[in-house]
Amino acid sequence: MPTNLYGRNDNFHPENSHVLPALMKRFHEAKVSKAKEVVVWGTGSPLREFLHVDDLADAVVLLMDKYSGLEHLNVGSGKEVAIKELTELVKEVVGFEGELVWDTSKPDETPRKLMDSSKLLGLGWTPKISLKDGLVDTYKWYVENVVKQ
After folding, report:
1. Where are the alpha helices (H) located in 34-142, listed in sequence order?
2. With the CA atoms of 28, 96, 134 and 130 taken in that order, what torsion angle do they form, in degrees rounded to the nearest 10?
3. Model-level pTM?
4. DSSP letters along 18-34, please?
5. In this predicted model, what pLDDT tens digit does every residue of 6-54 receive, in sequence order?
6. Tens digit of pLDDT for each residue in 63-72?
7. Contacts of 53 (CB under 8 A, 6+ apart)
8. What is d(CA 11, CA 61) in angstroms, rounded to the nearest whole number?
């Protein structure tokens, strides 16, 4: 059972994408249009866990080799990041230089979502791609494959 995934071939649709690709698309569009600000809902305080799809692939390969149990295993990075920190990191990776505005009249949603991946870690798996490196890779893919279309 994977945590929040991101990476190449993600869904960047403006109405039904997840938080990370949605932020990436919004910051990219704001950068291109030279917008002065990007408004983000809530306070940015909720914590989320993200995993790059290539790390999930590595976990699946390891599980095919080392696991034959019947119960599911969680696959997560084990690292939480506040939505505010994530948003600032996406802003940096995209290169948006405008202002970031938090609309605190909008809801924050669930305060915390962190999976217990200790069983998988016990089998010798650890994620290798840092959030920043994964964002850089995802943004490069987005620009080369989604924006150009």
Report:
1. 53-66, 83-94, 118-122, 131-142
2. -160
3. 0.93
4. -HHHHHHHHHHHHHHHT
5. 999 999 998 899 999 999 999 999 999 999 999 999 999 999 999 999 9
6. 999 999 999 9
7. 5, 6, 7, 8, 9
8. 24
